[in-house]
Amino acid sequence: MSSPAVIAVSCRPGHHFSKTPVASIRLLAGLGVEGDAHAGETVKHRSRVARDPSQPNLRQVHLIDAELLDALAARGFAIAPGDIGENITTRDLDLLSLPAGARLTIGEAVIEVTGLRNPCHQLNLFQPGLMDAVLDRDADGGLVRKAGVMGVVLGGGAVRPGDAIAVGLPPPPLRPLLPV
């Protein structure tokens, strides 16, 4: 297995489902991805803003592993980096197994993982059946969300494809990721 690395970065102003792959993104501490619609101290996702616009933004950065894109391709879906809204596409890092509070040092930036992306019906509008493809059930019948993780920016800086990713775990007890 190779070392964890970034394979793509994406950003887009305005509220659109997909983001545009770019050569680099700049993360801003406490805000998110510079120029991205979801950057800010408080929630920016429209459904969450409608409920309570003063909530802290725990979804400043969205990360997905390329292995999910590979698995979706094997099932007939054509998904490229940025297509389902992620800012950072990784390889060789099991994002879903990270605990809440894990810190990812990527390029010059530091991201704290806050939780799981909760997939929504917009996935099916992008490609029919995609929402079901990013959901699964564990041995106990519990729902498994596979659409990536969300995080907040602790330390700002540039992130580019090819950047290595270092993982720092929080002190025990480790807490599993929950949807945010």
Structure report:
It is a single chain. This protein is α+β, with helices and mostly antiparallel strands. It has one domain: M1 Pyruvate Kinase, Domain 3, CATH 2.40.33.20. It is built from four helices and 13 strands. It has helices spanning 46-51, 66-74, 122-126, 130-133, and strands spanning 5-11, 20-22, 25-28, 32-33, 61-65, 88-91, 103-106, 109-116, 135-137, 143-145, 149-155, 157-159, 165-168. The strands form three sheets. The protein has an eight-stranded mixed sheet. A three-stranded antiparallel sheet has the order 4-3-12, with no helix packed on it. The chain starts with a strand and ends in a 12-residue tail after the last strand. 37% of the residues are buried.
Outline, from the CA principal axes? Answer: globular
CATH class: Mainly Beta
CATH superfamily: PK beta-barrel domain-like
Distance between the termini: 30 Å
**What is the helical fraction, as a range of percent?**
10-25%
How would you sum up the major sheet? 8 strands, mixed
Summing up helix and strand content along with how strands pair, one would put the structural category as alpha+beta
By DSSP (H or I, 4+ residues per run), the number of helices equals 4
Cross-sheet strand order for the largest sheet: 2-1-6-5-11-8-7-13
